[in-house]
Amino acid sequence: MQQSVYESPDRNLAMELVRATEAAAIRAVPFIGRGDKNAADKAAVDAMRKFLGTVDFDGVVVIGEGEKDQAPMLFNGEHVGTGNGPACDIAVDPIDGTSLTAAGRQNALSMIAVADRGSMLDASSVFYMDKIVTGPEGIGVVDIRKPIGENIRALAKAKGKPVEQMQIAVLDRPRHAQLIDDIRAAGAGTRLLLDGDVAGGINAARYETRIDMCVGTGGSPEGVATACAIKALGGLIQTRLAPKTDEERQRGIDAGLKMDHVYTADELVRSENTFFVATGVTDGGLVEGVRRKGPIIRTESIVLRSRSGTIRRVIADHLAEKWL
């Protein structure tokens, strides 16, 4: 029986979604370090799609993998789930860090973010956005419009720690050369990320991690997905769209996006009932990667829910013979 579209996703949904990220991560394992990121991504996408199809919800992919004419990717606008249960927006990335997986490097993960239907910002017309993410201490203290050095000093004061002990995560990209220099000039240290600023942002907002702040220009879809997690962590995320051309800027305006506007977590995701689920593909600071232990395959996942403000870690042992 079709449920009301006003039904909100409940806590059981998150545990169902873990099955999809676990499957995607496990199927990506044979491609770790093999140099073929497309093959790894396809295996993860196929596994995630299969498991999502068994979940009782009516999901619409707001942030997906590829375009509709390139199916079987998980494309924007695709409906997933059984169609019964809560109506949701979902953001998927079967492998956040395909290049990391292909190279055998750390911090690749499989992730899904979920919120009430119609609540996620569709920023797909502008590929990049500037971001700054911190824990709760940054609220009312950090402002993306201020120089990075000023933000670092203000956050250090709020956290009660010396500036020289501050660790700032940044994607290691040529576009961030000046930003990296400015962070170091302020007296802080950098944690350069090869890929995957979603995990970097979450680690910046989590309690008892070594990262104090995550900054830089990264994908707009990843910014919206990160916001789902930050709302569960009580942290701060601010973003500004960063179009690279006048044509891209106009596309964003035509799509109803605000240029030169600071988007907060509540504007990126308007729902107060968000979920973020991620399973490690390779080892990282957020979760451990998939491990084969004799007859079992072990996965580690993290489940965040904003309504309850909870962070759960899920360790699962899967019989390897079931995945042959």
TrEMBL record:
<dbReference type="Pfam" id="PF03320">
    <property type="entry name" value="FBPase_glpX"/>
</dbReference>
<keyword id="KW-0119">Carbohydrate metabolism</keyword>
<keyword id="KW-0479">Metal-binding</keyword>
<comment type="pathway">
    <text>Carbohydrate biosynthesis; gluconeogenesis.</text>
</comment>
<keyword id="KW-0464">Manganese</keyword>
<dbReference type="InterPro" id="IPR004464">
    <property type="entry name" value="FBPase_class-2/SBPase"/>
</dbReference>
<keyword id="KW-0378">Hydrolase</keyword>
<protein>
    <recommendedName>
        <fullName>Fructose-1,6-bisphosphatase</fullName>
    </recommendedName>
</protein>
<comment type="similarity">
    <text>Belongs to the FBPase class 2 family.</text>
</comment>
